Amino acid sequence: MNEYDLLNLTYGGLEEARRDMARLLAERSPTHSLPRPLYNDPFLFRLDMEEVFQKEWLFVGMTCEVPGKGDYMTVEIGQDPVLIVRDRDGEIQAFHNVCRHRGSRLCTQAKGKVANLTCPYHQWTYDLKGNLIFASNEMGENFDRAEYGLKKIHCKTAGGFIFVCLAEGEAPEIDPFLTSLAQYMEPYDMDNTKVAAESTLEENANWKLVIENNRECYHCSGSHPELLRTLLEWDDTNDPRATPEFLEHYQLQAEAWDREGIPHRHVEHGLRNRIVRMPLKEGTQAMTMDGKPACRKTLGRIQNRELGSMRILHLPNSWNHMQSDHLIVFRVLPVSAQKTLVTTKWLVHKDAVEGEDYEVENLRQVWDATNRQDRDLAEENQRGINSLGYEPGPYSQTYEFGVINFLDWYAETVLNNCKFDKL
Ligand code: 3BY
Ligand code: FES
Ligand code: FE
């Protein structure tokens, strides 16, 4: 429980909360921010975890983070520790990071390399496909190791991204998006990238406020001087606010991208996924303080430094900026009703040398500043929402349509996934 949870208990129990969540989502105004309990009630947070984070595909990391056999990474999805490991066939597997003996967490580090997976508690040992290969003789004659393999989690990769889904039965459809993602990421040759820098911010705000904040740039001019050196304030080529100057600038860049076979056209898969390449401000090449590239080596087969930024949205937990010289990937993981972790990773060419080809400080400066600014905005947003004075307010249809789209996706997903009929 965090310090505010008791203050924000709106319901006497989970079933009452479930019924009211259905009502709140069905009766909400889609053009207004959500009713308060959806941003701060601990029961509704639990339902967000059950209906969204335990059932939908989530972005967890990049394939280049587990480049070799036996390389693993761990991630906590709420209370579910997850292990991602590259097996001896080179396939990426995801398991519940939980020992089948008495349930200890198996891998305790964020990243590592192993031959097999040995539990720190009583040394039960699993191979990289999750088969139990060793449990001491003390387990008795009738003990059948085959019954105690690690529990698998749905896992798919495309274009260098790793997605997992905790759903116990079938996972939702994601292949059409993965096909687009692989196609749009092809120029980047993701096997030859590496993480050059990483940050995790703990934000005292509900995860939906973190995503809402990312889905609009209405706040950019008031808060993001570093980002606005290079970023245009609308985030799609079909934005109604696009000026004739922008359209001309876009046209010229898009013609070059077409000649070079660089995918860029807006593609979407429902409201959950969107990919579009957007130019940066004229005369700039990357999201750095001076607009110059952060890395001397371009990525993959890319030669044109003016690739703008390809934005990839994956609801509920990721947005991304793919540029000619570096990539910035973002992952959102809820912790409690009012606590969220935002992890940012900066990727460059695998052979780029720190100090020669890039400086970490220069690489991360703009988004470190932007992330801190966004954290402060989300936290102030949460504080105001907790007040008796809060009532849902109207979104701007031009500046905040991305927020409206996100909440439409969220409401639809919860209403579809929730077993209201069982009540
Ligand atoms: O650039 C981004 O990732 C988002 C979209 C608009 C504002 N925000 C900083
Ligand atoms: Fe893992 Fe006992 S809990 S070996
Ligand atoms: Fe922002």
TrEMBL record:
CDD domains: RHO_alpha_C_GbcA-like, Rieske_RO_Alpha_N. The lineage of its organism: Bacteria, Pseudomonadati, Pseudomonadota, Gammaproteobacteria, Cellvibrionales. Its cofactor is Fe cation. It comes from the Bacteria. PROSITE patterns: RIESKE. This is Rieske 2Fe-2S family protein. Keywords: 2Fe-2S, Iron, Iron-sulfur, Metal-binding, Oxidoreductase. Pfam families: Rieske (PF00355), Ring_hydroxyl_A (PF00848). Residues 57-164 form the Rieske domain. One of its GO terms (molecular function) is oxidoreductase activity.
